[in-house]
C-alpha cells in the first residue's frame, strides 16, 4: 500500500517539474559566472519571481560610487522581493583586468552584498545573452557604465535608466516599486 501511494505521488509530481521550469522567463534562462568564485549564478534559480535591477558596472568609472546607492536600494527593498545583479564590463575600458581588484572595489570599498558576476560584455554582438535580451526589451543597450534595467517579477523590463540617474532617484524608486507590484 505504501509503495502504491509513493508511486502515485511521484506520478503526480513529475508533470509539475517541467511546468516549473517553463515558468522561468526567457530573460532569466541563463547562467553567469559569479565574481571571485568558481560558482555560477543560475538566474532562474536565484531571481525567478523577484523584481530585479540589472546594472553594468565598472571599477574605474566616475559613476563607481553608485555601488553605495545600489547597495542601499537592495537593502531597502530586498525584504519585498527585490534583487540587484551587478555585471562588471570592460566595454567602456574602465574595468580592471584583475578580478581580485574588481571584487575589492565591490565588496571591500563599497560593501556590496548583492550578486555580482565576473566581467562580461554588455553591448554589441558579443554581449552576454542577458544583456542582448535586456537591450531588445528596452530598445537600448548600455551607452555607458551603470545603466540600470528594472525588471518585474515576470522577466519584463519595466524601465531603464542611464548612468547619470542615481539609485536613489525618485524615478528609479518608482520603477522598482512598480516592478515589485507586478
Automatic annotation (TrEMBL):
It comes from the Bacteria. One of its GO terms (molecular function) is peroxidase activity. SUPFAM superfamilies: Thioredoxin-like. InterPro entries: Glutathione_peroxidase, GPX_AS, Thioredoxin-like_sf, Thioredoxin_domain. GO terms for biological process: cellular response to oxidative stress. The active site is at residue 61. Keywords: Oxidoreductase, Peroxidase, Signal. CDD domains: GSH_Peroxidase (cd00340). Residues 11-181 form the Thioredoxin domain. Residues 1-21 form the signal peptide. Belongs to the glutathione peroxidase family. This is Glutathione peroxidase.
Amino acid at each position: 500500500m505504501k509503495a502504491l501511494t509513493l508511486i502515485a505521488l511521484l506520478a503526480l509530481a513529475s508533470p509539475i517539474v517541467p511546468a516549473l521550469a517553463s515558468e522561468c522567463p526567457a530573460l532569466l534562462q541563463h547562467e553567469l559566472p559569479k565574481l571571485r568564485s568558481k560558482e555560477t549564478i543560475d538566474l532562474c534559480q536565484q531571481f525567478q519571481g523577484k523584481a530585479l535591477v540589472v546594472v553594468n558596472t565598472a571599477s574605474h568609472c566616475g559613476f563607481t560610487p553608485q555601488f553605495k546607492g545600489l547597495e542601499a536600494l537592495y537593502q531597502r527593498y530586498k525584504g519585498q522581493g527585490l534583487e540587484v545583479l551587478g555585471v562588471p564590463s570592460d566595454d567602456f575600458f574602465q574595468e580592471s583586468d584583475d578580478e581580485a581588484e574588481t571584487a575589492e572595489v565591490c565588496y571591500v570599498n563599497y560593501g556590496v552584498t548583492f550578486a555580482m558576476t565576473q566581467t562580461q560584455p554588455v553591448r554589441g554582438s558579443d554581449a552576454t545573452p542577458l544583456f542582448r535580451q535586456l537591450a531588445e526589451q528596452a530598445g537600448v543597450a548600455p551607452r555607458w557604465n551603470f545603466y540600470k534595467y528594472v525588471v518585474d517579477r515576470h522577466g519584463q523590463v519595466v524601465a531603464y535608466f542611464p548612468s547619470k540617474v542615481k539609485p536613489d532617484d525618485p524615478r528609479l524608486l518608482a520603477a522598482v516599486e512598480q516592478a515589485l507590484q507586478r
